Amino acid sequence: MSPHPPRTREPILNLPAVVTLSLLALIGIHAARLLLSDESDFLMVIGWAVIPARWSVAMGGVPVEEVMKGLRDGVPEDAAASLTALAQYVLDDGEGRPWTAITYAFLHGSWAHVLINGVWLAAFGTPIVRRCGALRFLLLSGAAAAGGAVLYAMMNPLQVLPMIGASGAVSGLMAAASWFMFAPASWHWEGRLTQPHERPRESLWHMVRNRQVLIFLGIWFAANYVFAFVQPLGLTDASIAWEAHLGGFLAGLVLFPLIDPLPARQRRFPA
Questions:
Q1: Domains of the chain
Q2: Which of 50, 113, 224, 266 pairs as cysteine with 163 (C-beta 3.0–4.6 A)?
Q3: Does pLDDT of 237 surpass 50?
Q4: Do residues 243 and 168 touch, judged by C-beta distance below 8 A?
């Protein structure tokens, strides 16, 4: 026998299967859209995207005339005609299409858009899957996507332009991971330090006193502000739906303790 045991080759990207399949779905759908005609791609976007005015008319009792008046009053004349035509097309059937609160997350505006979301999905989805499993990961992602869609629609009730992208779901995963990623390490029963996904969930008391958590949240909010309102160096080719980011983040922050299979870290009061 050789005195040196054979080396096992580690995979370059050690991602859980459900995260890999999610990434392939996002990339595959965007690639498939490039093969569609402009008309077919337009119909797909209109059918899958979140369009707040469609929800407002179908489920909120807002008259179509109010949407049209908002378009005439709130945009320049050169853009009003095209937006009015889009609104008439979108609102003509009177359907609310509530399922678009999920399907919009599968569409992206560019390769940069899908790849950036894919990187963050891999980074924050992986510890969630390793901690909670595939099913809870999917449920949390869907809930965060829906939370982002709902807040965006609430803050832009007369908007007729489609809103797409997985950023709301990714923001929810970021918020969920912040509950445990910055928790202090401890010794595992196997004689090693615990991985971040193995650590007890922080309580709100510990989170507001954890400098790493506060820095992480501060950077997240600052980045959203910069890309939404400043858009530096032309890095974005469309408006950033910061409302969807915030809605997804809040959904992930609130819902994660309800699905977390591990107990929270016990709060200890000073003597």
A1: 23-50+98-259 (1.20.1540.10)
A2: 50
A3: no
A4: no
